[in-house]
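Batch manifest line 222
LIGAND: heme C
JOB: complex structure
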Amino acid sequence: MVKRIPVALATALLAVCALQPVAAQPSRARATADVDLSARLKEVQANPALEENLFKLGRKVAAVCVHCHGDGGNSLNPDIPNLAGQNPAYLLEQLRLFATGQRRNEFMEGMIKSMNSDEKVGMVLFYSAQTVNHKPSTTPALADKGKVVYQKQCLACHGANGLGNEQIARIAGQQPGYLRKMLDRYRTAQSGPLAKSIMTPTMRSMSDADIQAVVAFVTAMP
Ligand code: HEC
Ligand code: HEC
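JOB STATUS: finished
ARTIFACT:
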């Protein structure tokens, strides 16, 4: 999908992100890279009026992201992740990794660089509050096999419902192509954050068949 996006559209999207006064005025002063986003999120969540403002700002930011991540963060492309319902801390951490180049995706890195810190916090407030569209399994037999793998290899961290927690990603209902890609990245990671993740030792021992089955199960989790 990303490769198929015409250069002009990508440029236009970036321009929209950089130029549009999506940014509410007061936040420009906070647009420095060294703002502690987690601290800012906590500060905002403790102030309902500010939280509401940044939620609205986040919804405006999402108008740019909709081209790939779908309406309300429910992606229509199996290779592009849903952002809906994702845990706030996990989203913030991904933004930090894209911004510091520890997570590589040319387009996302450009997007993130053009967002100020309140746009990032607003985006997180908006997406984490959206509901994931449930897609029942189209391959129930495979999903049943995946359930066994899930219970043995994933449940201890991601939880019975795949919702994760403050530190751990929500995976329930995530897009299948994206899940496959991420699991394979963890399995083969040689350096960087994925190689150091607590999840990597589990992934190292998984076969392609295990991955295929667990993806069929996880993508259909409500
Ligand atoms: C041109 C398509 C495109 C657009 C537009 C786009 N993204 Fe993405 N985004 C992607 C792709 C593809 C990935 C997966 C990257 C990878 O494979 O690591 C991604 C990943 C992410 C992730 C990590 C999700 C996870 O589960 O780890 C976040 C967060 C994110 N994008 C936020 C945004 C925000 C916020 C915007 C709008 C300001 C946006 N994206 C716009 C294509 C896009
Ligand atoms: C020891 C704990 C642990 C286990 C076991 C584990 N995970 Fe994870 N997983 C994590 C953590 C923590 C993250 C967040 C990023 C990071 O720190 O690597 C994560 C991230 C992910 C992501 C990336 C989410 C995204 O949106 O980018 C996927 C997909 C995932 N896990 C799927 C699985 C599956 C499927 C299994 C079982 C086969 C599994 N995990 C087992 C802890 C675990």
